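can u do me a favor
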């Protein structure tokens, strides 16, 4: 497993994160356990701030869908980034963390009336309007509230990034955004300019996630600037802001080759500026919204190994006390991860095993064919790069409680999400009196 951030091997031959022995963390907090390397998370924020904000005056907003809780929102705020939310729940979390609402951007392709009212009540910085239905709905809600909603239109630029089909978002055939090619986007702009309670600030696009090929971003910037020019010529409107999304790829497995944030910023911004110069237009304020590339590398999940089943000549299954409930990505996207035995990290690899989760599904496999020392029940397995989309996509399938999360920094671990218990699983259940199991009905 590739060591990242503050990971080191200590004198006991154990994996350390943020100065904390992961074997001790497993004892103290139980497993499965999400561990966030605070220093790495903050450094990733700073890399973006330096590459985009300090160098180009762009705004960086963290995509909280990748990992959202009160502590993470607080760190993002301290590092000077804005926040991208996609639901009332994420917006509520930001508000409870006292995140400045003028730096919050509200996304989503089907925001409810309640969510739009909430966004206006909280006075979020921008509402990213995805479709004409939402545009009309928001205008009516804003009129009723006596407000003028500041919006950006989400567009589908027709740029297909090289990534998994389920995380492509910029192609024409997508549930997200208004397409450029068929005139939908231009019609939406004209409609915005007719509405009394809508203030159009600019345009947004997002071409996908886990992208390594940086020319996709340059192409998206050029396409969007071409649209800015078309709108200016045909509707007399000049966009002030341009949000070019996020999606930069991270290291999960040995085939992955992440690109530096600075290189990403330079390629995108140079392409944008060249197009603006070519068209004789001012460069809009640029916004980017990284998520995975900030939170992903900073997360590690710890598991305790239990049952081991060796099928001679076929495969050796090693089961852990978590699985698709805390990390559904392998089942959803065939995502690949690396792992090590945190309590025996200095020992040489001795066998090839496959890591199975405990859910009652044949597809609950975390890692196929990983090289490890000879595995024993009770070993602590550490899976790296689990900070993005793992906790945020976790679930209670098989009525499994979701894991705890700790923030590791400066030789200290702090609990930032409590482990669910069985009482949490039935907290919202309602048992009608007629079904009370204490009353036995023997009537036939």
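np, heres the sequence
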């Amino acid at each position: 497993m590739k060591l990242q951030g503050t990971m080191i091997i200590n004198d006991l031959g154990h994996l350390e994160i943020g100065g904390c022995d992961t074997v001790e963390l497993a004892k103290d907090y139980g497993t499965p356990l999400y561990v966030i390397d605070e220093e790495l998370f903050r450094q990733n924020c700073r890399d973006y701030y330096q590459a985009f904000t300090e160098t180009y005056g762009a705004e960086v907003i963290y995509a909280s869908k990748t990992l959202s809780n009160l502590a993470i929102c607080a760190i993002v705020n301290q590092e000077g980034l804005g926040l991208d939310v996609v639901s009332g729940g994420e917006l509520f979390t930001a508000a409870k963390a006292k995140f400045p609402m003028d730096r919050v951007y509200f996304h989503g392709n089907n925001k409810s009336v309640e969510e739009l009212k909430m966004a206006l009540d909280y006075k979020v910085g921008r509402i990213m309007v995805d479709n004409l239905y939402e545009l009309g709905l928001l205008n009516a809600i804003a009129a009723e509230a006596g407000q003028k909603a500041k919006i950006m239109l989400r567009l589908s630029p027709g740029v297909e990034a090289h990534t998994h089909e389920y995380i492509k978002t910029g192609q024409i055939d997508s549930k997200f955004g208004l397409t450029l090619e068929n005139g939908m986007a231009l019609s939406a702009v004209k409609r915005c300019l007719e509405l009394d309670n809508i203030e159009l600030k600019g345009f947004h696009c997002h071409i996908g996630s886990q992208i390594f090929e940086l020319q996709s971003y340059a192409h998206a910037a050029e396409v969007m600037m071409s649209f800015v020019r078309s709108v200016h010529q045909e509707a007399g409107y000049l966009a002030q802001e341009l949000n070019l999304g996020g999606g930069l790829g991270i290291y999960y497995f040995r085939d992955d080759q992440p690109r530096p944030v600075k290189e990403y910023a330079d390629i995108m911004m140079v392409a944008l500026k060249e197009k603006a110069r070519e068209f004789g237009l001012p460069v809009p304020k640029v916004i980017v919204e990284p998520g995975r590339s900030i939170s992903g590398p900073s997360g590690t999940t710890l598991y305790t190994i239990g049952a081991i089943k060796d099928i001679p000549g076929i495969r050796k299954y090693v089961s852990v006390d978590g699985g698709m409930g805390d990390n559904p990505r392998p089942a959803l996207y065939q995502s690949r991860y690396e792992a090590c035995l945190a309590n025996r990290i200095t020992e040489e690899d001795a066998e090839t095993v496959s890591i199975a989760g405990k859910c009652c599904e044949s597809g609950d496999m975390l890692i196929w064919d990983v090289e490890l020392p000879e595995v024993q029940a009770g070993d602590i397995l550490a899976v790296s790069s689990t900070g993005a989309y793992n906790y945020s996509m976790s679930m209670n399938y098989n009525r499994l409680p979701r894991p705890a999360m700790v923030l590791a920094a400066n030789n200290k671990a702090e609990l930032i999400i409590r482990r669910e218990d069985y009482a949490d699983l039935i907290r919202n259940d309602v048992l009608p009196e007629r079904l009370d199991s204490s009353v036995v009905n023997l009537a036939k």
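The longest helix spans residues 215-235. hope that helps!!
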